[in-house]
Amino acid sequence: MIDSLMKNTILLGSLLATLLFLMPPGSAQVRDKVGITDRNGKTVVPCDFARAEYLGQGLFYLEEFNQLNPTEQTFKGHVVDHDGNTVPVNIPPGCTISKVYVPGSFGKENGLTTILPAGAIIQLHGPNGYGLCRPNGEIVLEPEHYFISYPNAGFFPVIQKVKSSDYLSFTVDSATGARVQAPAKCSSWTPSTSAVSPFQQAVDHLLLSGYLARNGTVVIKPRFFSASEFSADGLARVSFEQPIRYAFINKAGEVISPKFRQLENFVGDLAIAGVGPWGEKKLGLIDRSYQFVLPQRYFDLTLLFPGIYSARLTENGRFRAISPEGKTLFLFPEEVVYVSKIYPHCITCGVRSDDNKSKSIYLDRTGKQVSLNWPVIEGPALPKVPGGYFQVASADRLIKYVEDNHFYPEAFKHPNSPFLTANRLGQFAVFLKNYDLIGMDRKQVQLLLGGTGDTYVLAATMCGKSTSVEFEYENDKVVGWRENHIPGGKSYTGPWITKNMIVDSMPENRGGDQFLCFVLKPKPAGAALVQVRQLFFLPE
Known about the structure:
4 helices, mainly beta, Thrombin, subunit H, five-stranded antiparallel β-sheet, disordered N terminus
């Protein structure tokens, strides 16, 4: 089982790394700035913040934008009211507000307020770690802990870093301050709003899954290979290893369904399921009696909207939208190579164009192509944001997102990415847009990008893939640069670029298996922002 677990872990890591490696420039490193507007787009709070969260009754939590390195959090938050005025919150000296939690009923109530409710909990960030307090400053948990997760009905899971292991330490009741110690070697858990939550525990050198109650006590002992959260119908999907099979359990931990090779949660009275080995997997729909009501005949089957699924019969077959009965509702364009549901309003489709450029298009539930520049959640028509979008927060307040296209040297020098050893693709694309690289002085290159060599790694994965750029100098001035790419076992080098260019798109298959990242186009005159950002010049 250990060998299989390791294989699955490595496979998942490789897949995530590969997906992130192929992300377009800016998707990983260019950050949005957020603010608040009224329903007509009039500014209430300028777009100068890194994050905005609607708390309810006109109150918002705003986190300050890190002007030095936007990939790093500042943990400096503020609460503002409906008109953008700061709401006073008492916190201990030397601490900042990193999150605000309000009672679940608060956001559902009507009316406006200018104070946090008594049941609110402030997550503190201090020199020694995280803690909790009430709006009046009363300490619930001293700010000296490594990590505090999202609460479940007022119970906060807490990690107090012990030695080198990040095991769950205890759960604290924010109403009373009472603590329940976590099971030994509880390595991870899933924050949840249900009465019980999945967790993992090392048992006899095996990592098994079980369930914890809100207060942190074990209610279902670890015995599953994996476990998901219980849904509203009282069922949870668990898996069994060798070979992996999925089934549903009830809250007593009893297996109540047959085992399937693939199984998803019920939506209404239907769930996607399949049996058979992976190489021969065929998917269909089962009902509440676990019988197939849509025969297993699909290689891919994904729920898009209630009553609408994307499906294809073979690995290279054409995608179509079908009803639960299997009736074709519409055909996806032939160039679509994958279909996913990322945004609530629309269907995201990956397509391969005639020039082999990879891009996405978006369809509505009828198959009509639409723009992504629309509200994230349903509501009346909203004003449009060039290079951004709105999200509806309340009846008369919107959260506004605008893309920040400035280059931040510290973000390039110290990339913050959980799966990549380095991910600077997006930042380098922004760098080319903000600065004229050709002709730049070596000292300024080193100031902006760091290092002292002629090569900079832009992306590197756990699977050995990497992309780097190499600079050529004459008289300490950049006269050219080129891209080097190792997709796995082979190495490809792009042509020398000797004129100032900007990134048009990425990635592109440039013939055969030669896979390079940047597709360039000439840089418009006067596009560089070098003269604006005097902060980045070396002193004489």
